[in-house]
Design goal:
Elements lengths: L5 H6 L11 H6 L6 H12 L7 H8 L1 H31 L7 H9 L7 H37 L7 H15 L9 H27 L14 H18 L5 H6 L8 H28 L12 E2 L2 E2 L3 H22 L1 H11 L9 H24 L3 H29 L6 H31 L10
Antiparallel strand pairs: 1-2
Helix pairs in contact: 3-9, 3-12, 4-5, 4-10, 4-12, 5-12, 5-16, 6-7, 7-8, 7-13, 7-15, 7-16, 8-15, 9-12, 9-13, 10-16, 10-17, 14-15, 16-17
Length: 457
């Protein structure tokens, strides 16, 4: 099956004609989408429930440095993702379109280092851990959101958190069977609308509480010892950085129908319009309303001693929006796992809906979701672990490798500004990754006393 057509060559967006698409690329990463669809996928992969931790991060950094960090993270990630897209487009124009992050790493890093192992043994496993970790986190957060909704409707309910996680996992199990990344385009459009909707709710709720008689005393000073403040600041920077993390830029670009040139930039513009609007709205309103009392998720501040500071119907509506978007996020980050299974177990020479391909797809996707749901139910403190994974994975994939890929591909002169900007970002990001990993391990040790399997948190 030759996948390089005359039309592809004319568009300059073909894949190496000497190769054939494996089942993972052919079925999961099929290239049929538009730049609008790309914008929906990007927005879902970046704008999610992590934004509710931004007031907490700003509380550790203070007004000035906190806002500056959010601005810098937006600028650096937008720049970084654009560099990644430019490299991908350049390779496509040369007739070698990369559909996966690990393929990109194997090709580019393999030219400067011995052997092709970078994609197979470093980038591939790193991306898999981050994406599957996001699936577990999404399932855990979905269960927590579902439990919150249940308790709003029935304050005397006795169901445990793990039971809600299993219910949420059942919904993911159904949607996980959708055959391709492209087939999520309508779901991810709804996801975009939902993130705007709950941002309006959370921002309005914070402003309402901040102006009400129930408003907590506003204290914007940083608290704790100098050592704690240092590590808290590092954790806060990691929170802000990973809030903008994606990790699946090449896979999203793979869903675009050729020619790909310029389409990812338009998609990124959609995504960052939504991201900047939502991130700043939640971060500023949440920190203004609660100051250094902002919790790990600002939604926790909406309750005091188990009593809501806002009308129950409002909290119910807000959490319903969040719950539905968590479904879209979780299914989106399942795609790299789905692609791996399709590549290994499906037959690309047979139809994707044939019995030969449907049965292994059903088995292994079900197994993947079941394992993720079990881990989420067992480890309700997975957020601490995910912070560590974020430091090790998100920063290298989103802040370091794009700079390296660009410099290796285009070889800008050391006398040019872009070379030194890329080098500086890579060095600073590497330092943050190392320090962030240490801070995350420290936080895990501090919180260890609260850990217990199947805890009802």
């Amino acid at each position: 099956m030759n996948i390089c057509t005359a039309k592809d060559k004319e568009n300059g967006s073909s894949i190496d004609p000497s190769t054939e698409l494996d089942a993972g690329a052919l079925f999961v990463l099929k290239s049929r989408g538009s730049w609008l669809h790309c914008g929906y996928h990007l927005t879902t992969s970046i704008v999610g429930s992590a934004i509710f931790s931004l007031p907490f991060a700003v509380a550790f950094l203070g007004w000035g440095f906190g806002v500056v960090c959010i601005i810098l993270a937006a600028l650096v990630t937008f720049y970084s993702y654009n560099l990644l897209c430019v490299v991908l487009e350049h390779r496509a124009q040369l007739g070698n379109r990369h559909l996966r992050f690990r393929d990109m790493a194997t090709d580019i890093l393999g030219r400067i280092m011995t052997g092709p192992g970078w994609g197979k043994y470093f980038v591939g496993p790193l991306q898999f851990v981050i994406c599957y970790g996001a699936v577990i986190s999404g399932t855990l957060l979905g269960g927590q959101s579902l439990k919150f909704i249940f308790l709003l409707c029935n304050s005397n309910g006795k169901l445990q958190l793990y039971q809600f996680i299993i219910i949420f996992g059942g919904a993911i199990l159904l949607l996980a069977q959708m055959p391709s990344f492209h087939s999520l385009r309508h779901i991810n459009f709804v996801s975009l609308i939902l993130c705007l909707a709950y941002t309006v709710c959370v921002t309005a709720g914070s402003i309402h509480i901040g102006n009400s008689k129930n408003s907590p005393p506003k204290n914007y000073s940083r608290v704790g010892s100098q050592e704690n403040r240092f590590f808290d600041s590092i954790n806060a920077i990691s929170i802000v950085s990973t809030a903008y993390a994606c990790g699946i830029i090449p896979e999203i670009q793979a869903t675009i129908a050729p020619p790909v040139k310029g389409k990812m930039f338009k998609g990124l513009c959609i995504c960052y319009t939504v991201a900047v609007t939502t991130f700043f709205s939640v971060a500023i309103s949440g920190y203004w309303a609660f100051g250094n009392q902002a919790k790990g998720t600002v939604l926790t501040n909406f309750m005091v001693d188990g009593k809501p500071l806002l009308p129950p119907w409002f909290l119910l509506m807000t959490n319903s929006f969040i719950l539905l978007q968590l479904v879209a996020i979780t299914v989106t980050y399942l795609q790299p796992t789905n692609e791996l299974f399709e590549k290994r177990f499906a037959n690309p020479r047979m139809d994707e809906l044939s019995i030969r391909n449907v049965i292994p797809r059903l088995i292994f996707r079900t197994l993947s979701v079941t394992i993720g749901t079990l881990i989420a139910a067992m480890l309700p403190f997975f957020g601490d672990i995910m912070a560590l994974l974020g430091a090790f994975g998100c920063i290298p994939l989103d802040f370091i490798l794009p700079m390296v890929f660009y410099n290796v591909t285009f070889k800008p002169s050391k006398q040019t500004l872009i070379f030194w900007i890329n080098t500086l970002i890579a060095i600073v990001s590497s330092t943050l990754a190392a320090v962030g990993a240490v801070a995350s391990v420290r936080q895990i040790v501090v919180d260890a006393k609260m850990y217990s399997l199947f805890a009802d948190m």
